[in-house]
Amino acid sequence: MRKIFLFGITLILFGSPIKTVALDMAQGQVEIHGFVSQGYLVTDRNNFLGKTDGAGSFDYNEVGVNALTSVSDDLEVGMQLLNRNFVDVAASELRIDWAQATYHVDNEFGLKFGKVRLPYALYTQTRDIDLARASIFLPQSIYTEFARDTEAGMYGAGIFGSLPGDSIGSLDYDFFIGKVDLTDKGGEVKFFEDGGSPFDVTEFNAGTTLVARSFWNLPLEGMKIGGSIAGFPLNIGGHIEPIVSRESHHDLIPFAGTSFHQKTDVLTYIFSWEYVTGPLTLASEYQVFKFGSFDTTTFAGRSSGNARTSEGSYLMASYRLSDLLQLGSYYALYYRDKNDHSGRDFSAKSGLPDYASWQQDLALSLRFDITDYWIVKLEGHYLDGTVRTFIDANIDPVTGEGELARSWYMGAVKTTVAF
């Protein structure tokens, strides 16, 4: 009866399942796979990255199609097209999510180039695969939804492989150089302009990006530990708007209507641990994200300052009870400034409550496998703090009307067909 009920819900949301497609080409077989998903978000007191309180939002859907072919025994070429809609962060727009060529010399060494899937942290390369985990959202302390499109891929090239270690396990490694896919239309820009900011950003791009990652697969089967590091120069430019509501920005009123340019260096690193044994999966990560001093240029001259280091972490577990049901839960913690956990300094400078500088997130997930390729997920979150929400979605940037509630709840439903 439960399967019939969930089957009906999923059919209402997006229709019939789609079968796998394979095309015979002159160069070999092309495998085509993809996914279709529809979600629903609702919050009780704060809006989450857009209008989600009250009646909630159905502005949460994804359609992805990827193709992969073997040009030769050693060379593979693949790409993915993605159309994603997520409240105020991503509007429906077809884009190339990744497009890469992979050359395997052997298991110990390979080359990859194109718009490659970013080799960072445990789940950045697999976050689109809904069937790979119990939760709807990965922990927002590290895998932020507003940065998903950027974290999906980078333009460049690199090497990868797995070095055997016999009795001590093996070491997987990745090293890439290129450029992360930042644009002035991305979710990061919306976050930068948030909070009554007077900045209208028209330029947002990164310079040369270096990314490295390694995992030690321990002799204990299913356990690995490792780390990732990435760094790049960030360039931001645009205009200062004539309307400045936030008290902390009042010193910019004389510059209204003029242009600005900022440069800083970004460095982020993360420590990761995962253990998979039978139906149980445990994982934990800790990330540090550093912004260097912002070098700002306006018509009045140059200034420098506002260096900041944020930190995020989580502990996650999931357990498969049966072929139908999987349970999952995590606790995630994020601080805007690792040297200001209380938020007092942030509040004094911004005029916002101290809890707008941190966020704790306790999540519980239920996953129902209708078939091998069709799932439905239910998820609930209890949140303390608001740093991972859009302030302007809760407090009007012009009138100042509205509020941010410290503690709040979020519910989500998502159904996905993978083919």
What this model shows, in words?
This protein has helices at 2-14, 148-152, 187-192, 344-350; strands spanning 21-25, 28-43, 60-70, 75-86, 94-106, 109-117, 153-164, 170-180, 199-206, 209-217, 223-240, 259-277, 280-291, 294-298, 301-305, 308-320, 325-335, 358-369, 374-385, 407-418. The chain is mainly β and 419 residues long. The protein has a 16-stranded antiparallel β-barrel with strand order 2-3-4-5-6-7-8-10-11-12-13-16-17-18-19-20. A hairpin with a 7-residue loop joins strand 4 and strand 5.
Secondary-structure blueprint:
Layout (H helix, E strand, L loop, with lengths): L1 H13 L6 E5 L2 E16 L16 E11 L4 E12 L7 E13 L2 E9 L30 H5 E12 L5 E11 L6 H6 L6 E8 L2 E9 L5 E18 L18 E19 L2 E12 L2 E5 L2 E5 L2 E13 L4 E11 L8 H7 L7 E12 L4 E12 L21 E12 L1
Antiparallel strand pairs: 1-2, 2-3, 2-20, 3-4, 4-5, 5-6, 6-7, 7-8, 8-10, 9-11, 10-11, 11-12, 12-13, 12-14, 13-16, 14-15, 16-17, 17-18, 18-19, 19-20
Kindly list the characteristics that best describe this protein.
single chain; 419 residues; mainly beta; Porin; 16-stranded antiparallel β-barrel; 4 helices; 54% strand; globular; disordered N terminus
Question: In this structure, how is the largest beta sheet organized?
Answer: 16 strands, antiparallel, barrel
Label the overall shape.
globular
Count of discrete structural domains:
1
**Within the CATH hierarchy, at the fold level, what is the topology?**
Porin
The overall pLDDT, averaged over residues, is 86
Class per helix and strand makeup: mainly beta
Whole-Å distance between the termini?
25 Å
Gyration radius from CA atoms, angstroms: 22 Å
Strand order of the largest sheet: 2-3-4-5-6-7-8-10-11-12-13-16-17-18-19-20
Q: What portion of the residues fall into strands of 2 or more residues?
A: over 45%
- Tally the beta strands: 20
Order of helices and strands: HEEEEEEHEEHEEEEEEEEEHEEE
Counting H and I runs of at least 4 residues, what is the number of helices?
A: 4
* Percentage of residues in helical conformation: under 10%
Give unreliable regions as ranges: 1-26
CATH architecture: Beta Barrel
